[in-house]
Amino acid sequence: MTHKNEVKTLVLTLLVTLSCLGAGFQLFRSFEAASTSGETAVELPEAQTDLPVTASHAVEDSHSPEDDAPEDSVKPKELAIAPNFAQVPEVPAGFFNYGGSTTWAPIRGSVDFEIQKARPEFRLNYVQPREIIPSSQTGLEMLVQGELAFSLASRLPSNELLETLKAKGTQVRLVPVAKSFDVPAVNWSLPLTVLTIDQFYAIQAGKIINWRDVGGPDLPIQQFDRSVNDDFLDTRPNLETENIELLATPSEAIRRVAGTPGGIYVHTASVLVPQCEVKVLALESPLGQRILPYQEPLVPASDCPARRNQVNLEALSSGNYPKQLQDTLYVVINQNGAIEQQAGEAYASFLLSDEGQALLERNGYLRIRQ
Known about the structure:
Elements: H1 2-37, H2 39-47, E1 94-100, H3 105-109, H4 111-118, E2 122-126, H5 136-144, E3 150-153, H6 159-167, E4 172-187, E5 194-196, H7 197-204, E6 222-226, E7 244-247, H8 250-258, E8 263-268, H9 269-272, E9 278-280, E10 282-284, E11 290-291, H10 313-316, E12 326-334, H11 339-352, H12 354-362, E13 366-367
Parallel strand pairs: 1-2, 1-3, 5-10, 6-7, 6-8
Antiparallel strand pairs: 3-12, 4-8, 4-9, 4-12, 4-13, 10-11
Helix pairs in contact: 1-2, 11-12
């Protein structure tokens, strides 16, 4: 009996020990799971907004102002890439004000219209600033003031401005969605169709002030342009030459060129190429390559608006066009964790979708996603 009791005691002791070890193992697994998927997962979204996300990752083939933007220490939230507008997820319902760069004007009347048809719950309202020149800068200012849910930019804000906004509690993210190309437009009566790149730069810098010096008539060159605040990076030459007049909007500049035989205005191809009032000039590279910003044959003013010239994206994006005349388009998102951020992210996702990229290209902008 004594031997049997000892065996029973040994068996019971072994079972208790195994039970304790099993419980301890389960407790350790529970603690391990909590430490890797609980608290940390909740903190990640906050960490993503510690630094402003810029588009410095968008242009990798050459140096540009984007390369000077601050780097991100934490990978930002990945935006959804959908095949079409209907399948873009997490689209908030509501009425959203937006505004900003005039380079986006053709997009508002075409791509945004298609977004509205596909997603009627996502209502867009472009806000024109009162008594202020519309631009990338004013769009950002209105976003900061709470007048816009998100804004549109064709230039990057400076690091100093981003740091100032961050210090005041406003965090923004710039998402690149497309590229555009600036082209020169002149009066239809000017008997010129092409400038060399060197001639074009000399005109912009105010070193050539008469069209006769580039093979045209004896006619003073009158430049028209728009002012740019120092808070935004700008690759344009000096805007203080004697023969330049700064105006408020592209529409006003186009009207002035149309009424000024010696006028010239430089803006995005998507805006200028289809215009009836002015004609765009080709640029010739130092190797003699002529880059036509429009698809041949050139549609004369007499046939417009029944037919309009179309942007020649193939030529502009071939690698021969000056990089100084290329811009990146950004959606500026307010990283406030509220519905405004959701709206900005949804709009960027629309434009980055397969359908959005195709529509942008159809309207003269180069897709950012190949």
